[in-house]
Amino acid sequence: MIITTTDFVANRDIVQHCGAVSGNTVRAKHVGRDIAAGFKTLFGGEIRGYTEMLAEARKEALDRMTAEASRLGADAVINVRYTTSMVMQGMSEMLAYGTAVKTSEKN
Question: How far apart are CA 82 and CA 87, in angstroms?
Answer without folding.
Answer: 16
